[in-house]
Input
Amino acid sequence: MKKIEAIIRKSKFDDVKEALGKAGIDFFSFWDVRGIGKARQGRVYRGVMYDTSTIERAKLSIIVRDKNVEKTVLAIMQAARTGEIGDGKIFISNIEESYRIRTGEYGEESLYIKEEED
Output
């Protein structure tokens, strides 16, 4: 099992959510986050200078079976890409164990409903 964390533009969140759904990934957690990146510039709006050194992003956390890692990453990359600086990052880490609290199932079985097994 793997944990995929993606930090993406907030404006691309709906596109990524739709792409994940099409890839069969229908459960994930997300947060609105702020970060600091390499882009350092001020923006002027109606004569007022705004600091853009902190950037608003969405952070997604997705736990998948090993066989679903590649299609999950590809869905995020294709849907989140604009080709400009600040498109985001994807991190993948190992998950040692997971449990479904309701049933007591553990391991990969805790990540999906058996009737929907693919």
DSSP finds two helices and six strands in the chain. The chain has a mean pLDDT of 88. The helical segments are 13-22, 69-80. The radius of gyration is 17 Å.
